[in-house]
Amino acid sequence: MARAGLTAERVTIAGAELADEVGLDQVTMSQVARRLGVKDASLYTHVRGLEDLRGRIALLAADEKTIRIAEATSGRAGKDALVAFADAWREYAHTHPGRYTATQTPIRIDPELAAKAPGPRRAVELTYGMLRGYGLTEPDLTDAVRLLRSTFHGFVALEAAGGFAHERSPRQSWVRALDALHTLLEHWPPAREGDSA
Amino acid sequence: MARAGLTAERVTIAGAELADEVGLDQVTMSQVARRLGVKDASLYTHVRGLEDLRGRIALLAADEKTIRIAEATSGRAGKDALVAFADAWREYAHTHPGRYTATQTPIRIDPELAAKAPGPRRAVELTYGMLRGYGLTEPDLTDAVRLLRSTFHGFVALEAAGGFAHERSPRQSWVRALDALHTLLEHWPPAREGDSA
DNA sequence: AGGTTAAAACTAGAGGTCTTAGGAATGGGG
DNA sequence: CCCCATTCCTAAGACCTCTAGTTTTAACCT
């Protein structure tokens, strides 16, 4: 029987495609094997198991998303950068729902593998870079980054879960949310007594 | 063999407990049956299947969370109410991680069953009520509600996924995020040209 | 009390999944 | 050309979901 030419990467990509098509929890070893024209057991040469595969999909997605954001924000500053960053984030979640879902799973990723992935560190740099123009300093900077990431992630997650059943289109709320966040970053409230606790 | 006295509700609760203990995706028919001292097949008298059980857990969680929030915000207004609301939300996610995860799944819930659940409607009322003091009007009100829900959900989701690896404690960032959101609600930016698109 | 009956729980089994173990083919390096 | 590490396979065990058909239970009725 001719070799299929599998690699860990090809298996991961097949899994990611499957995730986007039928949902992350429909990604099984068997399905991925079938898609690659191979028996289930053959995958275990390249991937430790289902958990490992899921982790690799998550890492792939994180990298891809970071790249999109980097492209989108390149050369922009201030609110332009904020909107480009956020739109790229949401766009990725929309076009790759399965991959995006994978990024939400608690980190059960092989640490050694994770160390090789450029995504996370780069993502952090991008976010801090985007906020540079607002003149925040630590620890406000970290807090602001966390607030932004929370809002972006929360919005697309709720959107995907069907949480916005209301009349008003999510798109409109999204635009207004970005307006609001921009305003907020420009007028970031000073820490008050007791906030260091 | 003596009857176990199962009901759909008892099965759901067993599933919810299991979810909190070992994670939602470890909740299987077999495990739930084992916990109840019953054979797998017996569960199908009370619950349509695994999907259905998951949906019921999600509904249970939504109701419980809403109740906690209602209790916490009762009698409060303004920033007090905002903080109580948010803290109750986060607290629920922390103490019931499996149940909370269940609420994130896209709605595959039996519509008939969902109609009976008081949670969702009540949750919406609570949120709008909490914002009453800020003097917002539609459609800003809807946008603000969506922003808050996104941020709350996003924060606890990232927290649970290990997304806040930084030095600074999530608790501190949470407190500051609430400060920031309060400020934002007090100075909600007016809609600009083109925002209705 | 005893008999009837609907529901609850069981046994059996088909079909799917994950994973390990060990055997056979393949193709690149000596 | 042949070695042999790697790739892919078959086989098999354990577990899972769900359906069908059967037995047991408890509640109701006279």
UniProtKB/TrEMBL annotation, chains A, B:
DNA-binding region of this protein: 28-47
Keyword Transport attributed: no
Domain (HTH tetR-type) ranges: 5-65
Highest taxon listed in the record's lineage: Bacteria
One matching Pfam family: TetR_C_33
GO molecular function (one): DNA binding
InterPro entries the record matches: Homeodomain-like_sf (IPR009057), HTH_TetR (IPR001647), MT1864/Rv1816-like_C (IPR025996), Tet_transcr_reg_TetR-rel_C_sf (IPR036271)
Keywords recorded for this protein, A-Z: DNA-binding, Transcription, Transcription regulation
Protein name: Transcriptional regulator
Species for this entry: Streptomyces gardneri
